């Protein structure tokens, strides 16, 4: 066992702000339809800390962590009486040329570590514990590529919030107090056409990304003919306030199969920020000026989850319990529960967007 004497054990479930790692696993599963399936999965999730310690204690310096996200459809089963107010399935975005599909999934496991073997072992034991109660929808193993670059050759994650700004950007706050400390999670798997990308040349690539390739210096967006990827991914509201999210993207690939890609994962305290970012990329702002990176990088999955704070995850059984009825409640005048529209301000281009799945 390694680690400085007296240091805290760096193993914890639901550590959204865990450091960027050298390795990661992104595992999406569906829960079986039976009540027994749901109960068995609930038991495994409630003891996730124990499973993390089983594997992570072998090397504390490897910083093994796992964040669990629950999809909107599964949330109705785990917690039929209460839910994060903005949670809904990923909405397909259909732009003039490219499309962000909605592929869904009940649970997302985002496993991170400095060691690939710890990610592997944790996933192996996790799936063994879940057994036949789940089916795997998608499984991606990511890795750090040189100095945190993607397979397109550019540094990825430069705009991530740091220090005190991280919690404000990535975690739900006082505006939804029942779910404070949790985070909305959106994932998309992008597959790159590296031959076409590399044929562009460095200058054309830099205009598309909005940064220099060698030293990651931001380009002057005012001189660009079309908005860059950087510009479209920067979200500013009507009051001029910029809104950040936490990205923990990872490259993945299988050279023998000719598969090269980036797994996008964004954590946000407000879901509308991530949704607007994707809409701007695929539709454009103004409409038609879509992200030219999409000409070389195709989205093949899309799913939205909510990662509850650790205490909520540990006590999932409590979320299935109906709320207590106050003694002074009148049967003739039942309480009416309303859910505010928390989707945030739109771009005014909703006619270009279609929706897949069931929206609560």
In N-to-C order, the SSE pattern is: EEHHEHEEEHEHEHHHEEEEEHEEHH
Number of helices: 11
Structural class call reads: alpha+beta
Number-wise, the strands total 15
How many angstroms does the end-to-end distance come to? Answer: 47 Å
Poorly predicted runs are: 1-9, 329-360
- Give the integer mean of the pLDDT values: 87
What topology does this entry show?
Elements: E1 12-13, E2 23-31, H1 35-46, H2 48-56, E3 65-71, H3 72-78, E4 93-94, E5 99-100, E6 107-113, H4 116-130, E7 134-143, H5 164-170, E8 183-192, H6 194-198, H7 202-209, H8 229-232, E9 235-236, E10 242-243, E11 246-247, E12 250-254, E13 259-268, H9 271-283, E14 297-299, E15 303-307, H10 310-314, H11 316-319
Parallel strand pairs: 1-3
Antiparallel strand pairs: 2-6, 2-7, 3-6, 3-15, 4-5, 8-13, 8-14, 8-15, 9-10, 11-13, 12-13
Helix pairs in contact: 2-4
Give a description of the structure:
With 360 residues, the protein is α+β, with helices and mostly antiparallel strands. Helix content is 25%, strand content 22%. The chain has eleven helices and 15 strands. The strands form three sheets. Strands 1, 2, 3, 6, 7, 8, 11, 12, 13, 14 and 15 form an eleven-stranded mixed beta sheet that branches. It has a two-stranded antiparallel ribbon with strand order 4-5. It has a two-stranded antiparallel sheet with strand order 9-10. Strand 9 and strand 10 form a beta hairpin. Helix 2 packs antiparallel against helix 4. It is globular, with a radius of gyration of 21 Å. The N terminus and C terminus are likely disordered.
């Amino acid at each position: 066992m390694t680690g400085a004497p007296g240091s805290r054990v760096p193993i914890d479930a639901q550590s959204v702000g865990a450091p960027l790692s050298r390795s990661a696993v992104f595992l999406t599963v569906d829960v079986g339809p039976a009540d027994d399936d749901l109960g068995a999965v609930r038991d495994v999730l409630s003891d996730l800390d124990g499973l993390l310690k089983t594997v992570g204690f072998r090397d504390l310096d490897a910083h093994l962590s796992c964040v669990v996200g629950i999809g909107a459809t599964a949330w109705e089963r785990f917690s039929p009486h209460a839910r994060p107010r903005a949670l809904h399935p990923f909405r397909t975005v259909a732009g003039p040329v490219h499309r962000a599909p909605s592929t869904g999934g009940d649970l997302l496991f985002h496993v991170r570590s400095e060691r690939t073997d710890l990610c592997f072992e944790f996933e192996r034991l996790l799936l063994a514990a879940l057994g036949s109660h789940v089916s795997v929808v998608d499984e991606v193993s990511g890795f750090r590529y040189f100095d945190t670059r993607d397979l397109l050759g550019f540094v990825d994650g430069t705009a991530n919030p740091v220090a005190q700004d991280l919690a404000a950007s990535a975690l739900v706050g006082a505006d939804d107090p029942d779910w404070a400390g949790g985070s909305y999670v959106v994932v998309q798997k992008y597959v790159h056409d590296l031959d076409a990308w590399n044929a562009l040349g460095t200058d054309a690539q830099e205009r598309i990304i909005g940064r220099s390739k060698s030293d990651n210096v931001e380009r002057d967006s005012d001189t660009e003919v079309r908005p860059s990827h950087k510009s479209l991914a920067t979200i500013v509201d009507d009051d001029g306030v910029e809104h950040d999210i936490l990205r923990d993207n990872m490259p993945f690939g299988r050279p023998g199969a000719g598969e090269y890609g980036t797994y996008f994962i964004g954590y946000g305290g407000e879901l509308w920020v991530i949704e607007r970012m994707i809409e701007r990329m695929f539709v454009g702002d103004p409409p038609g000026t879509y992200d030219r990176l999409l000409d070389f990088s195709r989205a093949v999955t899309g799913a939205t989850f909510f990662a509850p704070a650790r205490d909520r995850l540990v006590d999932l059984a409590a979320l299935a319990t109906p709320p207590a009825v106050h003694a002074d409640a009148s049967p003739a005048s039942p309480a009416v529960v309303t859910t505010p529209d928390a989707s945030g301000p739109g771009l005014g281009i909703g006619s270009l967007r279609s929706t897949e799945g069931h929206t609560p």
